[in-house]
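Record 1 of the preview.
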Amino acid sequence: MSIIHYRHIAYWASGLLVCASIIAIAVWGLRLGIDFTGGALLEISYAEERPSISAIQQTLSSVGLKTAQIQLSGEKNLLIRTKDLSEKERRATLSALQNIGGNPEELRFDSIGPTIGKELRKKSLTAIVLVVFMIVLYMTWAFRKVSKPLASWCYGVIAIAALLHDVIIPTGIFAALGYFWGVCFRPRFHPLFKFGALAGNLFWNVFLNFYRKPLARKLESLAGEKTCRQLTKIA
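->
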């Protein structure tokens, strides 16, 4: 049974996912980590038993840090990501954590200003635009001798459309995760890294898919239709 007959179902499902993802990104946006928005990173080590996450969250909320992100590190350590803190707010946070036990000790306190966050966003967007431009340029050069049925630059535009399809959907999922469960882009979720890894794999899939068609036509003109089909399957 050929799945090509059911391609319209895939088209509709893909279109609905892309539309839903675009709406999610436009309405909810992305929750970016402190590397992009600016903020503070506080690392705590407990000499005794570490308090529960719920107790720590309640304590942070009592000092005005309701949106703080808590991440466990090992058996005794704790990472707290929150808005930018002044020296007075930092001391108040440490004092509140000491009140719930565990004998906490501050290991690290890093402050990332919003200027650095804006710089990272700008560099990320610039890199993505350059990657897209280079893909179109390379596809145009690679298919410069293939003028039918499309101009060579059209292959590059189609490749970018395919890449955007597969990048928009995961981005929309992250927008929904950020809105409903508070998941945000942190260094390990860096959008540029994800885009680069995903786009690289998808680009070669699209490239090879395009390359097979002109290759098949060329083989057909040289070796005949039957031999062409055999060689195309091998390729």
